[in-house]
Design brief:
Layout: H1 4-20, E1 25-26, E2 35-37, E3 42-47, E4 53-58, E5 61-66, E6 72-77, E7 83-91, E8 96-112, H2 114-117, H3 126-131, E9 135-143, E10 157-163, H4 173-186, E11 190-196, H5 208-211, H6 222-244, H7 247-250, H8 258-262, E12 265-269, E13 283-293, E14 301-309, E15 311-316, E16 319-325, E17 330-335, E18 343-353, E19 359-360, E20 368-370, E21 375-377, E22 380-389, H9 406-412, E23 422-426, H10 435-453, E24 459-462, H11 478-488, E25 495-498, H12 515-528, E26 540-547, E27 550-556, E28 562-564, E29 574-577, E30 583-585, E31 587-591, E32 594-598, E33 607-610, E34 621-623, E35 632-633
Parallel strand pairs: 2-8, 8-11, 8-23, 9-11, 23-24, 24-25
Antiparallel strand pairs: 1-3, 3-6, 4-5, 4-7, 7-8, 9-10, 12-22, 13-18, 13-22, 14-17, 14-19, 14-20, 15-16, 15-18, 20-21, 26-27, 27-32, 28-34, 29-30, 29-33, 31-32, 33-35
């Protein structure tokens, strides 16, 4: 009979053995269907038991290593040429992992904010692009959104997928079109790693070391930042508990009386609620709007609401007619005539916003009820009542912007041992409030990533599109200055820029034409990363000479020559100023592959600006290859 001491000793040894034995694992960035970077040494890593011997067999190579005392192991494969498919075997002391259908090609990371995140299905050519997306030589990998106060050991993901109509609809449209063009032009397998988060500042994508060296961020306290993020998590848990018990559903706010709805506060719709008196809140808010129908109009109808950020539950006369959980998709619901009635009807929408902007945010023309011949306008005055607001819980962070570096830590740092070809980037909208600071932040982030990956890779980005109401007169613009900061970053080696000043939409910060964005990124990458002799950029300002009351502008990247997109040949988008610095709209014409600019209001010009504004929608200078001129000013 064993004594208690003997039993305890056996139990203790069993417990210790369990602690010291870990399941053999490979990092989440590796898996079936992945692409490994060609012509570079490739590191493969994961977890095992401390000191466990690990071997990796792949494409005729066999390499070995040993896990450290924490259990992390890492081995390195010699450079390989493109090809495949191959299989990989990872062996430990007692376990083996088998990864299948692996290609060797070029791996590109696509990162940034919502325009990089924007899904393929919700684009101008989405249906056609998805239908034609089957390509075994393009592989897709998405890093799930996550935040961390310190660098994480691994990313969260659903793994690698072969490009096809099942895998592409929710993938980054910009990254997909970019990868498809590169694969088509170079006939090399392409792996696309999508790691972005909508509505994020560039500060969230930089490491602590890089950000704290930028002017204005030297006083950041890392310990305080970690504490705030952990404390915010506790507050957010209480906030989420309140959302689950919100009063609107318990008290049936979807079927109140007209008098009760009219006692709510009023608001103009559509409008993102952060731009209203509601302010910067997350949570649940109910909106109500009455509309009147004649007897003849009571028939099966279509309700259009535009996009709603993030989730809507939509009721008419107390009956649920629609529900969707996607901030990027315009709502369009079929409404049975049995739901409608002659006279006054009530439309009630419960909007749940989890992060970033919230509300019904499309264009006024998006809000309507079509009853088959009659269109009822639903924009304008609405009633609203708050159910749960984040401010009541200490404003727990709804997203990463309160925590600089947190996206780098969770969504980039865990894959910095990975060999890659380069990075494509689409971000900046969130930093237009302080564009001058972006001049240091953006190149700082690029150099930071290159240092963290220990690779001097190409970095290609999208310059901001035109957006918002065009200005009646020349004026200052944070968006224009941000574009300028992006262009200035071209001073870094191995960089390129896709100009899309002609692709934006005045009323939508998310232009739906992502195909041309991906194509222009690919052209810049093929020049910068692949050294192809192509016209990869539109005209770029290089200098100004004065000729009396006229300014004569020179450009590089003119390709086959300058071109104006105007059937009458008018050159538009230019403004000119004299010594007083007051800019007025200017006339311009092409002359010997240069642009001559003047105005009768300016006798002695001192400065010229082109496409300088939030939305310079008349800018029409291109090269004959069809690429638009980059916005600029001579009075930097």
């Amino acid at each position: 009979m064993m004594t208690f001491k003997r039993i305890f000793s056996i139990a203790l040894m069993t417990f210790c053995a369990h602690i010291l034995t870990a399941q053999l694992q490979v990092a989440n960035v590796f898996g079936d269907n992945m692409v490994l970077q060609r012509e570079k040494a490739v590191k493969v890593w994961g977890q095992a038991s401390p000191k466990e011997a690990i071997s990796v067999q792949f494409n005729g190579q066999s390499v070995s290593g040993k896990a450290d005392k924490s259990g992390k192991w890492i081995v390195e494969l010699h450079p390989m040429t493109h090809g495949g498919p191959f299989e990989m075997t990872i062996s430990g002391k007692k376990e083996e992992l088998h990864l299948k259908n692996i290609l060797i090609g070029d791996v590109w990371i696509g990162s940034g904010q919502s325009n990089m995140e924007w899904p393929l299905f919700n684009t101008k050519t989405g249906k056609e692009s998805i239908a034609n997306s089957a390509n075994k030589n393009i592989r897709l990998f998405t890093v799930e959104e996550a935040m961390a106060a310190n660098p994480n050991a691994d990313v969260t993901t659903n793994g690698w997928f072969v490009s096809n109509p099942e895998s592409t609809p929710n993938f980054s449209a910009v990254a997909y079109h970019f990868g498809k063009q590169i694969n088509q032009d170079l006939d090399i397998p392409i792996g696309l790693i999508h790691s972005s988060w909508g509505g994020t500042d560039i500060e969230t994508w930089m490491s602590w070391e890089a950000l704290s060296s930028v002017d204005g961020f030297g006083n950041l306290n890392k310990e305080e930042l970690v504490y705030r993020q952990e404390n915010s998590g506790k507050m957010r848990a209480a906030f989420q508990a309140a959302i689950a018990e919100e009063p609107g559903m318990k008290q049936n706010w979807f079927k109140l009386s007209a008098k009760e709805y009219q006692s709510w506060e009023t608001i103009e719709m559509p409008k993102i609620w952060e731009s209203t008196k509601i302010g910067n809140e997350d949570g649940i808010i109910w909106f109500a709007k009455s509309f009147e129908l004649t007897k003849e109009q009571v028939k099966d109808a279509t309700l259009s609401l535009g996009p709603i950020d993030d989730i809507d539950d939509t009721y008419i006369n107390g009956q649920l007619v629609g529900h969707m959980e996607d901030w990027s998709v315009a709502r369009k619901y079929n409404v049975s005539k049995t739901v409608l009635k002659e006279g006054i009807n009530w439309l009630v929408i419960r909007v749940t916003d989890n992060t970033g902007g919230g509300g019904i945010y499309g264009k006024p023309s998006d809000l309507n009820l079509n009853t088959g011949g009659a269109t009822i306008d639903l924009s304008g005055k609405w009633y609203y009542k708050t159910a749960v607001l984040s401010s009541a819980f200490g404003n727990p962070s709804s997203g990463p912007n309160d925590f600089p570096t947190c996206l780098y830590n969770a969504m980039i740092a865990p894959i910095t041992d990975l060999s890659i070809k380069g990075v494509i980037w689409y971000q900046g909208e969130n930093n237009t409030r302080n564009p001058k600071q972006y001049r240091e932040l953006f190149p700082g982030m690029i150099m930071d990533w290159r240092e963290q990956f220990n690779q001097d890779f190409p970095f290609i980005w999208v310059q901001l599109a035109n957006f918002m109401t065009p200005a009646a007169q020349p004026k200052e613009s944070g968006w224009a200055e941000l574009r300028e900061a992006q262009s200035m970053t071209l001073a870094l080696p191995k960089t390129g820029q896709a100009v899309i000043i002609d692709i934006g939409e005045a009323n939508d910060i998310h232009p739906r034409n992502k195909k041309d964005v991906g194509y222009r990124l690919a052209m810049a990458a093929e020049k910068v990363a692949y050294s192809k002799d192509i016209v990869y950029s539109g005209p770029t300002f290089t200098g100004m000479e004065l000729d009396g009351n006229k300014a004569v502008l020179s450009f590089s990247n003119t390709g086959s020559g300058l071109k104006v997109k105007d059937k009458y040949g008018y050159v538009k988008g230019f403004a000119i100023a004299g010594a007083d610095g007051k800019f007025v709209w200017a006339k311009a014409q092409l002359n010997d592959n240069k642009v001559v600019v003047w105005s009768s209001q300016v006798n002695e010009p001192k400065a010229v600006r082109y496409a300088w504004g939030d939305n310079p929608d008349d800018a029409n200078l291109y090269n004959k290859e069809g690429l638009p001129a980059s916005p600029f000013r001579t009075d930097q």
